[in-house]
Amino acid sequence: MRPRTPRPRALTAGAAVAAAVLLASCSTPGAGSGEPSANTLTISTPTEPDSLDPTLANTFAARMVFTSFCEKLYDVDGDLKVVPQLAAALPTVAEDGKSLDIPIRQGVKFNDGTPLDAAAVKTTLDRHLTMKASARVNELSAVSRVEVKDPATVHIVLKRPSAPLVAQLADRAGLIMSPTVVRKLGDDFGTAPVCVGPFSFDSRVSGNQIDFVKSDDYYDADKVRLDGVRYKFITNSSIATANLESGDIDAAEHLDASDAIKLKSADGTKVLSSDTIAYQSLSFNVRPDAGTPLSKSPALRKAFEMSINREILNKSVWNDQQVPDCQPLPLQSPLHTKVPCTPFDPDAARELVRKSGLKTPIPVDLMATTGAATQREAQVVQSMAGDVGFKVSIKPLDLVSALQLARTGKFDAYIVGWSGRVDPDGDTNDIITTGGSNNFSGYSDRAVDSLIQRAGSTNDAEKRRQLYAQAVERVGSVRPLIYLYHNRWFTGTSDKVHGVVYPPDGIPRFKTATLSP
């Protein structure tokens, strides 16, 4: 069924606004330049990346797309162990833990043909640390300065020992950009990004798709069998499933559980699953100026949590495919400590609502992104909370708009997922610490800040486990956010697609993918 003509889809009003914002920030070299070859893999994803600039990007969709064109100093394997990617080996750490040397892989070129070396790495890391709008600042907060020890070695001086740093360099903080293009485009790097990767950026049609073509400069090109990859944005899982079954796309990432179950029994398709490190949470705006009943009362937030039956939520929305839990650290983490969940107790919740003295039902505006499953999830929460005295009004929004409102404190409650990180610091720091860019609730507790910093400043696993447990317990006592479950994610593919790698970080890799005739 190839080549094919892409089918246009209507945008919601919110998505249209988001598309306009993205279009304004993105030039689209090569857009509309024609159909991809028959050996180009087309993947649907339910959300569009906010930016293709590693310094600025802050969405899961961006993390996924980066795997096709922008490699990191380190990556994670199927066991969630950090392994070298653009680095030649794991770092050598000084005895006092306050500096480290990273050897850089030799003979590697960026996709503009310029060489990767220690100076290039320094350019990227310095940009992450100093760019005004950088989303990497907190991730690299332990870094004092970056030095070029020699052309093949980067020397990083730290303010304090940092156990999470290498794991951060296996995520967006470790994505390395071409210095030539950084100098040329400056703040507009994301409009025509160039890194080291199996594919090179070709074009972006905001609200529709991003195209990449096989790189001529990639050091591992022998393993790349595709001519290119295309990411199409299809917010509705059922529509993506239909497109996969019809052959209009080759793979569909982030499918709802019900659609994955359907595809498992369908002819011509198969389903990959990943027990991920991601979690789903419900964040409450607790800023002093929020002025809502939930923002003012930990007791009402407790009542809200008591109204939620996690097991029923999982079964009714996700076909029992998620793993109910009450903390951010993934089950696979050796630092995970079992935390008892606040029990489902609607009678006790009603009593807390009664004791508040507020007129019932108590109004709550609940933001939820426009995906069908997330909307069903919001409706279940709406019903459960309504049973104990809350009147929940659901506000469907596209992801970009929801994140903007969340970060500026213009919301009441927000159902939001976090794709998870290999090191627990990435699941706590910046999310429950004061001033974090992903601290949507606006929660601030200097004791929690201290616990998280201390946990990140030691390599003693048992000490770290205890410190994270204390932080989670302290946050749980006042509930600026409540954790619902850890995710199992699904990617459907045509049975002609082979070689996709799908590790527990939940990000499918298409470098080694192939398409059979």
Kindly describe this structure:
- This protein is 30% helix and 22% strand.
- It is built from 16 helices and 19 strands.
- The chain has helices spanning 13-25, 60-69, 118-130, 165-168, 179-185, 237-246, 257-264, 293-296, 298-306, 310-318, 346-355, 372-386, 399-407, 425-428, 446-456, 461-478; strands at residues 40-45, 74-76, 82-84, 92-93, 99-103, 143-150, 153-158, 199-205, 209-214, 228-233, 251-253, 269-284, 323-324, 362-369, 390-397, 413-418, 481-494, 497-498, 514-515.
- Strands 1, 8, 9, 10, 11, 12, 13, 14, 15, 16 and 17 form an eleven-stranded mixed beta sheet that branches. Strands 4-5-7-6 form a four-stranded antiparallel beta sheet, covered by helices on one side. A two-stranded antiparallel sheet has the order 2-3.
- A hairpin with a 2-residue loop joins strand 6 and strand 7.
- Helix 9 (298-306) runs antiparallel to helix 11, helix 10 packs antiparallel against helix 12 and helix 15 runs antiparallel to helix 16 (461-478).
- The radius of gyration is 23 Å and the shape is globular.
Instruction: State the helix count.
Output: 16
What does the radius of gyration come to? 23 Å
Distance between the termini: 10 Å
The unreliable regions are 1-27
**Biggest sheet architecture:** 11 strands, mixed
Rounded average pLDDT: 92
Number of strands: 19
Helix content: 25-40%
Beta-strand percentage range: 15-25%
Quaternary state of the chains: single chain
What structural class do the secondary elements suggest? alpha+beta
Give the overall shape.
globular
